[in-house]
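To: structure desk
From: M.T.
Subject: fold request, one chain
Message: Could you run this one when you get a chance? Sequence is below, nothing fancy, just the single chain.
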Amino acid sequence: MELVLFSGGAAKAVASGLQGDFEAGQGCVLSATFGAVGLMRDKLLSGEPCDVLILSASLIEALERQGHVVAGSARDLGGVATGVAVRSADPDVAIGDAEALRAALSAAQGLYVPHLSKSSAGIHVASVLERLGLTQTLHGRIHEHPNGATAMREMAAAAGDGLVGCTQVTEILYTPGVKLVGELPPGYGLDTVYTAAVCARARQPELAARFVQALAGEASRQLRQTAGFKLEA
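Reply: Done. Structure tokens follow.
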């Protein structure tokens, strides 16, 4: 029995952390695809089979209104901040306020980011660069990748100095070779709530509902916090 998951990359550590026990307990195999939330939505809308979605709350709400998600099945996993990263062996950069962030990004020899129009973090990064007046300044130094996890892996493997990454905190935390400097400063940050839901065309709707509960339930609370999710008390 196969359970198909399409998920934003921000939730990879949580879904992967639950996978082994869930598969053993339910007698199933989890087939998971992780990527930019917009791309995951597009995969669903193109007709690809899917049982469970983990996307931004706003996308899940829209898909529920459109009839692509089972009404009432959505459960929030928590909020994820957008953060700044450098390679593990590199010194931290100052990002405490807008001027420090502008200086750090201006000095970057390479800025590694997720898809600037299909991912939650990438869309936000694009708006931050515009507000800081750096869109043209950094032209040619921006390394855009399909999702934040890929961007962080590529930065970890890249040669040269002065490399900076910007994506969701969860993707930074689970990528070897990079470290979290911190969240974007006040006025420039973004916390995105991620939500799991059962797809309307799920081939395994009951199993899907159980996995949604495992993802968002009390038993996974510590895992989500460790992965970088912000949870309500």
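Reply (cont.): The chain has two domains: 2-78+193-227, 81-183. Let me know if you need anything else for the meeting.
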